[in-house]
Write a structure and sequence with these properties.
- The protein is globular.
- It contains 9 helices and 11 strands.
- The protein is about 30% helix and about 20% strand.
- With about 300 residues, it is α/β, with parallel strands linked by helices.
- The strands form 2 sheets. The chain has an 8-stranded mixed β-sheet with strand order 6-5-7-8-4-9-10-11, sandwiched between helices. A 3-stranded antiparallel β-sheet has the order 1-2-3, covered by helices on one side.
- It has 2 domains: about 1-50; about 55-285, 3-Layer(aba) Sandwich (Rossmann fold), CATH 3.40.50.300.
- It starts with a helix and ends in a 9-residue tail after the last helix.
Amino acid sequence: ALVERTGDMARRQATGSRPYVLVDLPCGARFTAIKPPLSASGVAINIRRFPRTRLDLAGLEAQGTFAGSGSEDRKSELAYRVIGETPLVTYLTAVARSAGASLLISGEFSSGKSTLLGALASLVPPTVQVAVVETFKEVQLAHPHPLRVVVPGDRPDFPTMDEVLNVVITRMRPDLLIVGEIVRDEAPRFLDAVNLGKRAWATIHAGSALGALHRLETKALASGLPHRAAREQIAQSVNLVIHLARSGRRRRVAEVALVEGLTANGDYALRYVPIGRVAPRATLLSDLWEQVGGSWEVQP
């Protein structure tokens, strides 16, 4: 009964052919429910709550978002230095206030991508015209007069994300386009915006800064864009990638990479800010094998 009543609030129903429902609650939380037969062990409900107060960069710094990893204790006090004595927080503040760069914020689920996006967006000057397009109202803004559009992905009576982004980019003509999350249709329109001279910010799920570019590329290819064209557009238009990592309840900036075009071999040319790098999972597994006493020598 709870699932049906909650679905009624948003005119959505978990039916036999579609036994799940996604609803934005009045309090701002996101309600997701999955029913049998899709859920094999009864009704499963997830309620994702968001902070009621918007965190700025100072608040995130106080939480350790810009500190180094635990394995870098000797460097922890320098972990958010960029060049010389410039802290990463100061650098990101300048990037946000200028609204002059296109960027991706990447990370796994619940790594703090939207929180960081909202903190950066709060620094955009009020003279900059901002448009925010999301499937759920998630990004917390402090801008006085943004254009805010929510496009439910599961409502056949609504226009598609592709249609909405096309109208926002070409007709509303914002100075800065913020896409809550690049999942599917958002990718080609995101590239359209930045290649038309707009600045665009977005979040995307990925395991590293380089992985974020590859995933954006994959999403763009799904729209029919040729591989070489997609890679060239991304390399020319995305300027910065900020990657977040999560360990337990701790979330931190793990990589910051400047995108400097393509190499002679056609790979992305990235210049990493010296705060650390994400270790590949294969490396972590290899280290674990050695820690438990495993040997790489072939036994006779």
